[in-house]
What we know:
Number of helices: 6
Largest sheet: 3 strands, mixed
CATH topology: Four Helix Bundle (Hemerythrin (Met), subunit A)
Strand content: 5-15%
Helix content: over 70%
Bound molecules: heme C
Strand order of the largest sheet: 1-2-3
Structural class: mainly alpha
Order of helices and strands: HEEHHHHHE
Amino acid sequence: MNKLYLVIIVTLLAVIAGGAYKFLIQGSVVESTDGRLAIQLEASERDLILHEMRTFLATIQQITLGISEDNMELIAESARKVGSAAQAEVPGTLVGKLPMEFKQLGFDTHTKFDQIAMDAEDLGDSDHALSQLSTLIQNCVSCHAVYRIDLAAE
Ligand code: HEC
């Protein structure tokens, strides 16, 4: 009897660990035709992420404008809008589909925008902002190199 309980408990623990691994680390991905990992999402989830992406692109345009005009306020204001505080409310179901590395890179990108905003105000140095932006864009490049988004099959 005791052994049976043990087997049941171990089995349940394995199921929980597997679920946690899938939810926290792996996400919902499949290998895709171009060699990247395709995150499998519903249309509304994909729309949410791509909307955030277009906001990123518009933001780095504004930051480069700010740098070229030595306009620290424009740099700080644009960067802050996509900082950690502004991070899109991501529904729990979507969080579970995103691989850990994806979430870390996304989080780090918001943090880097925060840093650009703070330093633009504190240091007022557009060369510094440009070099920070270049580092930040490496996040965009590395994530795009590894992941894409596909609509999950029905
Ligand atoms: C954590 C991962 C990640 C980061 C960081 C990231 N992206 Fe993306 N981005 C994606 C994925 C995945 C797609 C979908 C690509 C696909 O399906 O081919 C995407 C798509 C886009 C698109 C296309 C949007 C559309 O409507 O089709 C733009 C523009 C974009 N990203 C800009 C950026 C910029 C600019 C940055 C950096 C400031 C950035 N992204 C950072 C993952 C990321």
